Amino acid sequence: MSRKTERLTVDHLAELADPVRACVFWELAPVDRARLDEAERIAEKESWLSGVLRDWGSCGRVVRVDGRTVGHIVYAPAARLPGAAALPTAPTSPDAIVAATAWIEPSMRGGGLGRLLVQAMAADLVERGHPAIEAYGDTRGRADGCVLPADFLGSVGFKTQRAHPTTPRMRMELRNAVSWKDEVELALERMWGVVRPTHKATRPIGSVRAASGD
User: Which of 116, 119, 213 is nearest to 172 (CA)?
Assistant: First the structure.
């Protein structure tokens, strides 16, 4: 089975399953998204992605298994995600990029694809010089794919930044992560069947280490 990640593009949105394809929980404020029907939400999501790709750059990854898109993750600066401002543990820390949402097809879960997406996101943000990622976790078991489960975030290296019974804000530090970036790249290459020499870590990587293993 071949699996790899790619940068999220507008073309990928058409391959995503419902209801995540039409989820604009993060892209619009609550009042604005309540006015839209499903077709309008899909169009708004495409417009949002086009704008962020143009103005900020890569803001997501998809994971493909045997050439088919089976999951994705979306991340962006908090200013690009006005829906986050309505959450009880907002605002996002000024130095952090927000991991908004991720989704894996139910039949493909349990095989490390979610962790692979988080690794790809973190490697991208380390490369671009961002010091941290924050995410708003869900403890209620939402099934719409718009908000990441808090237990999943904890399992891939996020720690609670601001506690809340239903919507904790969680954080992954990327500072001092040069050696961790090498570990992430090595882990991804191993998953893709590529072998390269192992680089010895030169500095501690702290809480981020949890996200690099599977």
Answer: 119
